Hints:
Layout: H1 6-9, H2 17-22, E1 32-36, E2 43-49, E3 53-54, E4 59-60, H3 66-69, H4 92-97, H5 107-110, H6 115-118, E5 128-129
Parallel strand pairs: 2-5
Antiparallel strand pairs: 1-2, 3-4
Amino acid sequence: xxxxxxxKTKSLTQMSPSEWESLCDGCGKCCCIRMEDEDTADxxxxxxxxxxFNSATCQxxxxxxxxxxxxxxVQVTPENSGQLKWMPRTCSYRLLAEGKDLPEYHHLVTxxxxxxxxxxxxxxxAVISEVAVHDEDLPNFIVQWPGEPEF
Length: 151
């Protein structure tokens, strides 16, 4: 008899901190700068990332201190994961909060953290740091990442 993985047997709030952290698929899409249309409330995603994002590793370069260094960095929690509608639709936290399963390329499914990059579902080496872009130029960097809905 096979044992079901923890994300299929536990609610988000029942997960241990290490289980919760392991859900992150490492896509980096949540670190992309977003813009909201004031008239329509539509959210547009850019390929411009937080100054702490490492494009090669698809990880925060200072994860522990990110909130202190980037005050508007949102910490995803079991309590808010289903309410952050700006999160990528491919985000594991969002998927599980919506009652869906992890995608087939997720490292907890494949056993390999590189699968997401190999499948082209991450922003690895496809982004530019916010330190190199002026705020008024952000509309020039709007993108649609794989797995996300069209505008």
